[in-house]
Amino acid sequence: MSEQKTSMRSLLAAIRKFWWLVAVLALAGGAASFAYAAAQTPLYQATSSLHFALDQGASAVDLNQGSAYTQSQMLSYAQLVEGSRVLEPVIDELGLDTTPRELARSIQVTIPQDTVTLKITATTEGPESSAELATSISEHLIDEVQEIAPRNPEGGSTITVVVYDGAVAPEHQSSPDKTKAAALGLGAGAVAGIAAAFLVVAVDTRLRNEDQLASATGIPVLGAVSRSPLLAHRSIATIQQRLSRTTEEFLRIRSALTYVNVASEVKVLLITACKPGEGKSTISVNLAMALASEEDSVLLIDADLRRPRAHEYAGVDGAVGLTNVLSGEVDLDVATYRFPGTALDLLPAGTIPPNPAELLTSAAMKDLVAAVSHRYRYVILDTPPVLSVADANLLSPLADGTIVTVDAQKTRRVSLAQTTKILTGGGARILGTVLNRARPVRDRDGYYSETRG
């Protein structure tokens, strides 16, 4: 039952997301079907109805027997309609350029159940000609029945055939039914659109919202950061607009981390992602700023020694930093940069070394993290993507918890599964995930306004 509900929700979500595709295909199907029907030659149908009776006896028994006999012969009479003995005279009378076999394809004979009536329906390209054809066939069928029917003592036919409902030229064509064709095309197009929408959603394994993210791994979702112009150019939303939607989203993540601290204290946070370009540095810098306050000082360490980006958010050079401290070239206080008016310090990556993994797993790195964890309330390690290099996995034992950044526009389910498997295999404690570049929630958009910084 739960799987059925999930499938139904997925189908409805697909329709809501790609409603325009469903509408376009439905309209296209309806228009194409209507155009095809309009291009076909119109056909008209006219029907002539005949009644058969046996003229023998006057008692009730004779009448019943006569009726039973006539019913038994109705199939034979029906076969006569499409025979050459009836159709050849019709062709000659109407001057038709055809053969009895070809003409028989334009005729439909029906016998209502348990009756002695027969209906002849003729289909032609004109209303008048259909009525003329049905009438002519009826007349020549009567002649043929009269000729082959058993004779009475006076030499007359024992079968009487009368036309009780003559053929009338139809006012409207019987086919093609353009309205019906358009409706069928519209329905078929809609079904095709729904199938296409569901297929697109099924093939798309990106984790678009928090529900999909939570169900993909079972790991808690700490929050979601919506697409925002404030984050488009390596900026810090919590500094530019403190009352923006984006700032509020990072404050929600901060609140989620406070609940994580209930079980065990978390001072050193490692933030990573699955692959490059998923926004782990954006999350690291903005979350660090959200965590920083008068009571809580925060140190952000750019531990991505391959493609460092944190210093760009601060607008500093970043040539002196972590690698220089680990090598003993400079002191920590000299290498750190304080964001003005905040309790957030940044330790840039420094000079990019030829051996990043060796530096990150060195005793100096371990001692540094231990030392700064006593000086700061929070220490955040911005590390390389897990599926690119092993650095994040090597650093995870130094952290109290790990946060995985998931990009709603890029990250695939299989990538996230591989990332969590690698991290947990290395002993990492994954506190949760953060969904980056998520679709904004409409209800909140009306309350917050943001401008490009």
Protein model, in words:
With 453 residues, the protein is α/β, with parallel strands linked by helices. It folds into three domains: 2-40 and 177-203, no CATH class; 45-123 and 130-164, Alpha-Beta Plaits, CATH 3.30.70; 210-445, P-loop containing nucleotide triphosphate hydrolases (Rossmann fold, 3-Layer(aba) Sandwich). The chain is built from 19 helices and twelve strands. The protein has helices at residues 2-17, 19-39, 60-81, 84-94, 100-104, 127-148, 178-203, 210-217, 237-240, 245-263, 280-291, 310-314, 322-326, 332-335, 356-360, 363-375, 391-395, 413-425, 442-445; strands at 44-54, 107-110, 117-124, 159-165, 221-226, 268-273, 298-302, 337-338, 344-347, 378-382, 401-407, 430-438. The strands form two sheets. The protein has an eight-stranded mixed sheet, sandwiched between helices. A four-stranded antiparallel sheet has the order 2-3-1-4. The chain is rod-shaped, with a radius of gyration of 42 Å. Keywords: ATP-binding, Cell inner membrane, Cell membrane, Kinase, Membrane, Nucleotide-binding, Signal, Transferase, Transmembrane, Transmembrane helix, Tyrosine-protein kinase.
SSE inventory with pairings:
Elements (H helix, E strand, L loop, with lengths): L1 H16 L1 H21 L4 E11 L5 H22 L2 H11 L5 H5 L2 E4 L6 E8 L2 H22 L10 E7 L12 H26 L6 H8 L3 E6 L10 H4 L4 H19 L4 E6 L6 H12 L6 E5 L7 H5 L7 H5 L5 H4 L1 E2 L5 E4 L8 H5 L2 H13 L2 E5 L8 H5 L5 E7 L5 H13 L4 E9 L3 H4 L8
Helix pairs in contact: 1-7, 2-7, 4-6, 10-11
